[in-house]
Amino acid sequence: MTALALRSLRHRIPAAVATLVAVLLGTALMASFATLVQSAGGAHDDDRELLIIMGAVVGGWGSLIVLFSVASTVGIVAEQRIGEAGLLRTIGATPRQVRALIVYEATAVTLLAAAVGAGVAVFGGRALFDAVQRGGLISTASAYGGGPAALTAAAGVVVLVSVVAAVISSRRANRGPAAFSLRQADVPDRRLPRWRALTGVVLAGSGAVAAVVTVTVTGESADPYAAMQTSGSASIVAGVGLAALAPVLLRAPARALRPLLARSGGGYLATENTTRRPHVFAAMLAPVIVLVSTAVGTLLMVGIDGRTRTAASDPEGVGDTITTINAVVIGMICLFAAIMVVNAAVAAVVHRRAELDRLWRLGATRGQLRAAVVLEAAVVAVVGIVFGLLGSTATAVPYAIVRHEGVLPDGQLWLVPAVAAVAAALAVAAAWGAHRRPDRWKTLRS
Amino acid sequence: MDEDIPALAVEALTKRHGTGAAAVDALLGVDLTLARGTFTAVMGPSGSGKSTFLACVAGLEQPTSGRVVLEGADVTQWDEARRTRMRRDRIGFVFQDFSLVPYLTAAENVALPARLAGRRADPQAVRQALARVGLADRAGHLPGALSGGQRQRAAIARALVTRPALLLADEPTGALDSTTAREVLALLRAAVDELGQTTVMVTHDPVAASRADTVVFLVDGKIAGRMAAPTADAVAAQLAHLDQLTGAAR
Prior knowledge:
- The complex is a heterodimer of chains A (about 450) and B (about 250).
- Chain A is mainly α.
- Chain A contains 17 helices and no strands.
- In chain B, strands 6-7-8-3-9-10 form a 6-stranded mixed sheet. In chain B, strands 2-1-4-5 form a 4-stranded antiparallel sheet, covered by helices on one side.
- In chain B, α6 links the parallel β7 and β8.
- Classes of the chains: A mainly alpha (about 450), B alpha/beta (about 250).
């Protein structure tokens, strides 16, 4: 089965690339922060706490996004194999073999990508440490101490999550009678798995709790940065939670957009598709929510902090540096989330080429198919932006209240349309680009 | 429109796949004229060019040379977009794999050609088309909730609802059991007899072919013979001796 898995991989480069990108960049990001924690071990006493906070806390938020993205990407890719799994089962592969194929494939790609990602983190971690040191947050007495322990630990966690996600998804491939999946794409009546619904509710709930705690507890604290510690992660946690619930979030809003779009052929296809097959588009929706929630929430927080900081609230005078470091770290996390938006959009569209080809045979013009793909991405982007903004309030609103700006921050509200525009542009452009890759439009038969 | 114009006229149609040493001639000069309201089966061994023929007629593929004339209009040189519109408006397609859109209900699948043409489908016509194939009570079901035979009947309803100039069926019974296959063939036959629907069906199955008015045998990219008023036995016997047909054709 291993040999078959490796051979089959060579023929599914686009799917493998999606996993590869998510795991590689995810490992690079996580392992870079992990080296900060490792460096703390040998650091000067004054610097130890900050390195641990930077590495473990800030890195931890990022890890949540990374692990969610990896799990969701591996899940999409494994799910796309279900049709092929049916074929293998009809010719005598046991359910165990089919699962093994899917898991081995994911493992092979993940190991390769995690190794490269850890290699990137060798430089990334050092660069991060240097940046923190140059910013004056830690003294020159401490030296970079990242090494194999941090790199392998981070890579190991990513690999573990990826393999577990593949195992869970592979079970789905064995559902139903074997030949069933040979028939073309059905719309399975699929509910959100209970563990996923539970994870989503718990995470979204913790985001809300963190928001309340910020206003009621840490906001009253003497330490001016206590409130930042509870509220900073709230929008990330809430965003990931909402993203886990993505399949149930899409249907109703997509239906609301129907009257707007249903007049054109392409728009009609787009609305029916997004309302009837939310699980296909949930994979695209999730990273949009995470991106918007994280970027808007944390960037507004940094902005509020910059405006409201006073000499009294910042006795150590580290505010500017914290702002800079925050911006860099948040920027990295947002960049990762943005790449995941593209990654997921491409994976979702590439897999649908056969379906688009079928519509073309039935008389949909290429213009209509292009419109359908672009409008689907637009619907997903709009819904993702709405829920992402909802998630971002978990950070922005309590922090604005704590810093006496009221419910809405006093400035930088332009971030909202700016981030929304970037997210929408990424999703739509990626879907459009994936759709117009040239190899498709030949008919299948000759 | 002038009733004397044939529904379809194919003249000296050739199609070459690939170039150079790897080139394969799928069609080597096919001539075929179909009067309106006729039911023609196209038979031949694998690789005889049946599917290429259908793809060229439907405008899915551009022929290498020759002409395809649909109701008097030469569609051969039309561009991609125009051929797509022709397929949507003037040709009904029934595929072996049903080709239903999985996220649309049976009724919405039937209404799809009109939707793609930017019209709102006439609900009355959609209901009638579904009733004609015996799916009146399954209109709101997604394809996943239909049996194979029901899916193919929904596909036939979709192909007929636009009252196309030409109905093309590519192995329509290939994925069905014999009982369901019989039902599907009866529906195609009824469309010809009751609606005057010009129909071309590519098939491997002598029983299916026997429901047609004429069987055309395609061998090595050329028409090797014809049989009017076919029976399943006669078609099967002819298929077993296609080499004689090719000998006669030479």
